[in-house]
Specification:
Blueprint (H helix, E strand, L loop, with lengths): L8 H15 L41 H13 L1 H21 L5 E12 L5 E15 L4 H67 L5 H35 L26 H7 L1 H22 L4 E11 L6 E10 L7 H67 L5 H36 L25
Antiparallel strand pairs: 1-2, 2-3, 3-4
């Protein structure tokens, strides 16, 4: 038996038209973004702040083709990012699925049967029809469900963008650490060579009975400690390379060569106004969208306290005769009378969740402000520390040269030369550690500001006071 679609157009069209008419009666709750915290008008680290967009493409500011390639590899091969992308696809699918709840459901129902009558003749019968069902969203429950899923999908997209930025930062930090540890290895080897040379000189003096044997014990101990630093630095470089392999999806190739030397600290960073962070940082955008989702969940809970109205229709045709077409339309109302307070408590639950989302949004925003302020202040302090430690290392280097000449001339004991050399390498390591900290802090500043690591087209913006103009007191 076959059906012609035109036979059902009239009844289906009436159900659809009634659906549209009644849906217009459904109240649409309007979400208005709100804040329970004050947004600073300017950064405390600056005398004044002016609007300016944060620079994009901050990974490229380190001027390393190797780093650019590592970040690109991570964006395509990192497994955690793939999982985040799958969660985003899931949220988007749920949002699309929730949008279908406002539409009527049409189902085909066809049955074919056979049997024998009293005369022994075989009878074949067929019954076919369409069933139509639709919930009239008078109170906005279905709309709230759709809006909730939509806001959750937007939040999921923001979270995915945050994951991308965090991954770019993680790769950059790992690359900085690898090169920082490689430089620390160079310093350790320099120290080992210097201490080995001193041990050789002391051994010659002991053999010539110009000094006591205890000097040799002390020198050999210093050599052993220097070798320990070499081994530790070698292990740190190897561990860092393995971390980069995991982040970029290359593990366990063991062939990654990311040792290119520490880059110079990139130029100053425009930081814009504090309020701009609320519109730029993906984690804060996600937090604000969760407030909106919680708002509509509460609306759903309130709508569930009201009577539910639904329409159902049935269109049936028996046999092959078009005149056998029968259709019906039935309205149903289900009004809650007693549920032990379940629906009322559901409203209370959703209200509390909305308050929680609002508080978390405020906490996330305040954390972002603090992170930016801290990164700005830390950069100024680290710059001053690096200047002082570099001066100390340079002065001690000259002192080591002078004291070594005196030692070789027999005017100085070994322990005096050793003391100056210990202070020199300590200052050298401290200056190096601060340089690494400066680079890591810059990555943290970019992450806190929410600027994209991907290079984008420049925008026309107002001038902005930059990091070079941060004032400080010695």
């Amino acid at each position: 038996m076959s059906f012609k679609s035109s036979e059902f157009v009239g009844p289906v069209a009436k159900v659809a038209a009634l659906s549209v008419m009644l849906s217009a009666c459904a109240p649409i709750g309007q979400y208005i973004a709100s804040r329970d915290f004050n947004v600073p008008t300017h950064w405390a680290a600056f005398g004044q702040s002016e609007p300016r967009l944060v620079d994009h493409g901050w990974v490229a500011s380190f001027r390393s083709g190797v780093l650019n390639q590592l970040v690109a590899d991570a964006m395509t091969s990192n497994r955690d990012l793939r999982a985040a992308a799958a969660r985003l696809s899931e949220a988007q699918a749920i949002a699309r699925q929730s949008g279908t709840a406002a539409l009527p459901t049409v189902a085909l129902d066809a049955n074919v049967g056979a049997g024998r009558d009293g005369d022994g003749d075989t009878r074949v019968g067929a019954v076919g029809g369409l069933g139509v069902a639709w919930e009239v969203d008078i109170w906005g429950r279905v709309q709230g469900q759709r809006m909730t899923a939509g806001y959750e999908a937007v939040a999921a997209e923001a979270i995915f963008n945050a994951a991308r930025q965090s991954l770019a930062a993680a790769v950059t930090l790992a690359w900085i650490d690898v090169n920082g540890n490689a430089r620390a290895l160079e310093i350790a080897r320099q120290e080992l060579a210097a201490r080995q040379a001193l041990l050789n000189s002391i051994a010659q003096r002991i053999e010539a009975q110009e000094t006591l044997a205890v000097e040799g014990n002390s020198a050999r101990a210093d050599v052993a400690r220097a070798r320990d630093r070499v081994v530790a630095s070698e292990a740190a470089v190897a561990n860092g390379l393995r971390m980069l392999e995991v982040l970029t999806g290359r593990y366990p190739s063991g062939r990654l060569n990311a040792v290119t030397g520490l880059p110079a600290l990139p130029g100053s960073v425009p930081v814009g106004l504090p309020a701009q962070i609320l519109e730029r940082r993906p984690d804060i955008i996600a937090a604000e969208r969760r407030i909106a989702a919680a708002f509509h969940r509460r609306g759903q809970a309130k709508a569930a306290q009201m009577p539910a109205v639904s329409l159902s229709g049935n269109i049936t045709q028996r046999g092959g005769d078009p005149s056998g077409l029968v259709w019906s339309l039935v309205g149903n109302i289900l009004a809650p009378i007693f549920d032990g307070g379940r629906r009322a408590e559901e409203v209370n639950i959703r209200t509390a969740q909305q308050a929680e989302a609002l508080a978390l949004y405020g906490a996330q925003a305040l954390t972002a402000f603090r992170e930016v302020e801290t990164a700005i202040a830390d950069e100024a302090a680290l710059r001053r520390r690096l200047s002082h430690l570099t001066t100390a290392a340079n002065e001690l280097e000259q002192a080591v040269t002078t004291e070594r000449q005196r030692f070789e001339a027999g005017e100085l004991e070994a322990f005096r030369l050793n003391d100056v050399r210990v202070r020199y390498f300590a200052a050298l390591r401290d200056a190096h550690d601060v340089r690494v900290a400066l680079l890591r802090n810059r990555v943290g500043l970019h992450l806190a500001l929410g600027g994209s690591f991907v290079t984008e087209a420049p925008a026309t913006v107002a001038p902005q006071q930059d990091m070079a103009n941060v004032s400080h007191t010695e």
